[in-house]
């Protein structure tokens, strides 16, 4: 596979590129980053052309640029020639991602992964079950702690949690509180707190090294590459795996 | 219903008696406690005779006494006359409870509730799902924090967690670590910590007031009263409830 | 001592009244509550007149009423006759408490106790030392979790923490973030999170039973009764105790 | 400075070597590791000879080897020629470190750093103050969580905490409980839990990247290099820094 890493000069991007070298089925790695001065629309298109698909970790701003170029490119070419894949790891988008990519899913398989830790999705699945069995008497709060430079709050993951909990538990609609800590460097934490009558349940998922995300995104790229064009949810990815060991 | 509370002078016993007064379907409440000096086997048997069933919160030592008297009584009477119920809320037994009660389940419906918080069982259910989906690469640790006078460690609840996790996830057999804090007064906390590669998940259930247990035990008594003679697990009780609100 | 409990029909007020019965030096207890229909300004004044001093747990609204009546009363009487004391345990005031009570400290000793747990103040003292030794490279976040009916956020205690940390560590001025959970019943928790470079420190103080506050406020009342008229800070109370056992 | 890193092929050792390259005052870096097959006593002595001093992160077993060689070497040479320094970052020793190094402190400045995170020592200082002000009514528990390969429990840091708390608070002698989690990879956490009457305080220090220790040990090496021969405690190092920013 020829893999493009967009945002490849950032902290996470660098780790993806480093780790990708250990993947046998990744033959070529191309890096692009908005920080590069020499970039132009032409170079951007070349980047897309050269790669079978792209992992995007460029941030909300970058994703927009990438999608524009993707669309521009897709509209000019014979769709049959360029079935691409795209794993979007950036968060903080003002629009829904599914909506944002609606114009490119004709010729592109897109996976939106607001969080690339597999265990986090297993965590969410258990949290949803817990919310469903606790029922309407319990208040739910979603909390996240990320580094001081992170601009969006709550985190993309926390938002995803809220949406999922609301859709699985109708009584939680518009009722889930959230809070965020933005401080230091190195804390990557998402928490759900259930408050009942004289009882409280706190569940916390923490990642200590972004290596976890780099590996997760690469594994997702290998999977989405073989999917038909269309929009994919991380839940669909999860279902494709052996998700229950018991 | 005529309800007996064995261990009814202790902290939890007192709360059960207080709360029972608010239950319409509990007509009479009898209290017995090993601390009472005047007790004798005769009085003990009268206690059992007077009640439709008993909630036991007397501690491991007390449960043994109670079961002996129950058995003694059962062996002398016409079983048809005395279908009783028993909710065992004590923990710290050296033998398995199911084994301990095997001689009385001919004429008695017995529910063993090492923890009477309903939400704790929902919590365990989610924890088991999480352990199953995380799989063998994750280490599991069960932790509990209880008051400084509690003698058994780990707590009955923590032990139950370990057994359940081991039976649901064969790879965890003999692999689950545990730790306990015994300190202060008022902390009632059970925690499960999953440790992976650069990731950690911590889930904690805390009860702030033993009112939760008093209410739970009374609700369980109302249910087990109508069950046929036999041994019942708290999971069976849970299944009888509307356990999933979604 | 003749003690008045204003807000004495609320949850905390009831506990204070119950516990006060065990204090040998509290001879008479008077209860007043805004929920009482029959109250009038005359009754309110009688309440103040009858008591040597008052513990206020009526909430921000109530405190204002109480201070108005206090002032009204003080302005009409011979100040020498009525040296009173007042322990303000309510929080959520829109003005600073010291400012609010400025008109009554001529004839009243006032202690503002946004939190009546002694250990919480020892906790704060350690937190301040930690903030001072960690220095400007660490970000500080104050978090609190209280019941779903609590109206003010952050809690009075959290606000006090922020003010104290800012005044002890000039580099934190306007830099301390905060978050609050309002959910369930029974969680009373204040937390300070320090985020550094690949390091994080989390310190949490939790109260499991408002008995702690009832006892704290009664002990404070016994102390402030013997203080000269004026405004007192909980730090001053702390200094009067044997604060360091080592 | 010519710096030796003993245990320099391990995870932490590698990080120290990497980071040392950025230190202007570290001119040469020598690496030695028990995993190297070709090692012999001669090579070991050469290693000591070549370096101005050594950072030891080889583990308890390695430290013993290192001290033997150090002693052997010291006994044969003119002490004036070889004032060396040694920073011991290994833990899990069966003997006290001060005792273990007693034979080499005639010609060597030794700093024992069971934990090289500066903030951890500030944390401990606050914890000690908290224990002192809470007093004898509170129970104290020390907890640590480290990776699944760590052999000693409690951690060297946790042990140090216990000793310090016991010596600062005589009533805690033999009364401090501890627990440890050994699981996963990447959690580096030390916690102190204070349990009172209906109150609990939990303080947790977590390191997310061993970069923190690598930097700490290098900074300590620069300091101990200029100290006179003798045994040094990490507290002495702390005092030499600007420890209080306020």
Strand segment tally of chain A:
10
Q: Which CATH C-level class of the largest domain in chain A is it?
A: Alpha Beta
Count the DSSP helices of chain A.
Answer: 8
Distance between the termini of chain A: 33 Å
Largest sheet of chain A: 6 strands, parallel
Protein name (chains A, B, C, D): 4-hydroxy-tetrahydrodipicolinate reductase
Pfam families (chains A, B, C, D): DapB_C
Domain Dihydrodipicolinate reductase C-terminal (chains A, B, C, D): 129-238
GO molecular function, one term (chains A, B, C, D): 4-hydroxy-tetrahydrodipicolinate reductase
Would you write up a description of this structure?
- The structure is a homotetramer of 246-residue chains.
- By secondary structure, the first copy, chain A, is an alpha/beta fold.
- The first copy, chain A, folds into 2 domains: 2-116 and 211-240, NAD(P)-binding Rossmann-like Domain (Rossmann fold, 3-Layer(aba) Sandwich); 118-207, Dihydrodipicolinate Reductase, domain 2, CATH 3.30.360.
- The first copy, chain A, has 8 helices and 10 strands.
- A 6-stranded parallel sheet of chain A has the order 2-1-3-4-5-10, with helices on both faces. In chain A, strands 7-6-8-9 form a 4-stranded mixed sheet, covered by helices on one side.
- In chain A, helix 1 (11-20) packs across helix 7 (211-224), helix 2 (41-50) packs across helix 3 and helix 5 packs parallel to helix 6.
- Chains in contact: A-B, A-C, A-D, B-C, B-D, C-D.
- The A-B interface holds A 117, 119, 122-123, 125-127, 129-136, 138, 168-171, 194, 196-209, 211-212, 243-246 and B 117, 119, 122-123, 125-127, 129-136, 138, 168-171, 194, 196-209, 211-212, 243-246.
- Strand 9 (199-207) of chain A pairs antiparallel with strand 9 (199-207) of chain B, so a sheet runs across the interface.
- Chains A, B, C, D: This is 4-hydroxy-tetrahydrodipicolinate reductase.
- Chains A, B, C, D: InterPro entries: DapB_C, DHDPR_bac, NAD(P)-bd_dom_sf.
- Chains A, B, C, D: One of its GO terms (cellular component) is cytosol.
- Chains A, B, C, D: It comes from Holospora obtusa F1.
């Amino acid at each position: 596979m020829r893999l493009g890493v967009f945002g490849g000069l950032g902290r996470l991007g660098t780790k993806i590129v480093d780790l990708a070298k250990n993947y046998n089925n990744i033959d070529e790695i191309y890096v692009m980053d908005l920080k590069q001065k020499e970039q132009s629309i032409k170079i951007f298109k070349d980047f897309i052309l050269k790669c079978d698909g792209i992992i995007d970790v460029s941030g909300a701003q970058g994703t927009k640029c990438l999608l524009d170029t993707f669309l521009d490119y897709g509209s000019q070419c014979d769709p049959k020639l360029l079935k691409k894949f795209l794993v979007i790891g950036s968060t903080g988008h003002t629009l829904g991602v599914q909506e944002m990519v609606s114009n490119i899913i004709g010729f592109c398989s897109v996976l939106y992964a607001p969080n690339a830790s597999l265990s986090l999705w297993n965590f969410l699945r258990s949290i949803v079950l817990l919310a469903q069995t606790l029922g309407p008497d319990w208040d739910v709060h979603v909390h996240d702690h990320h580094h001081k430079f992170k601009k969006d709050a709550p985190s993309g993951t926390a938002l995803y949690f809220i949406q999922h909990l609301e859709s699985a538990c109708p009584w939680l609609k518009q009722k889930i509180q959230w809070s965020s800590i933005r401080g230091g460097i190195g804390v990557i934490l998402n928490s759900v707190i259930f408050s009942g009558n004289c009882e409280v349940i706190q569940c916390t998922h923490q990642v200590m090294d972004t290596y976890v995300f780099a590996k997760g995104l690469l594994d997702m790229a290998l999977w989405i590459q073989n999917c038909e064009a269309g929009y994919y949810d991380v839940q669909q990815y999860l279902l494709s795996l052996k998700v229950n060991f018991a």
